[in-house]
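Chapter summary example.
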Amino acid sequence: MRELARIALLIGGTLCVGLGVLGIVLPLLPTTPFLLLASVCFARSSKRFHLWLLTNRWCGAYIRNYREGRGISRRHKAVTLAVLWLTIGASAAFAVSRWWLRGVLLGIAAAVTVHVGRLKTFPSAQPPAPQPDPADRR
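The structure predicted for these 138 residues follows.
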């Protein structure tokens, strides 16, 4: 049973990484919850995959900073909000014809803006979070 649970967590972690990566480019699909869930799944199933995720050059520092409560940099916050409003704004203006659906999209964008705005912010020049020790691989 333990091996079956480990395999299920590995599969779940891999799916969450995939959904998190998709969330980077799709405006309504969240990135952070999926990456955090992948981190939890890998932490319980494979030290090697967990370390890979935490040391990944694209999302490793992002996950470590979020988990440690450090927040995100001003630059990432600005880019996140700019991409959010450009994609949802374009969708509301050009892809949706119903007024109430435009309102839903703009409401979602406003809620995400409030969430991102409430995250802790550190200057972009701040050094990245400490790296996990690669000797901890399984």
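To summarize the output: The helical segments are 2-25, 32-45, 47-55, 60-67, 74-95, 99-118.
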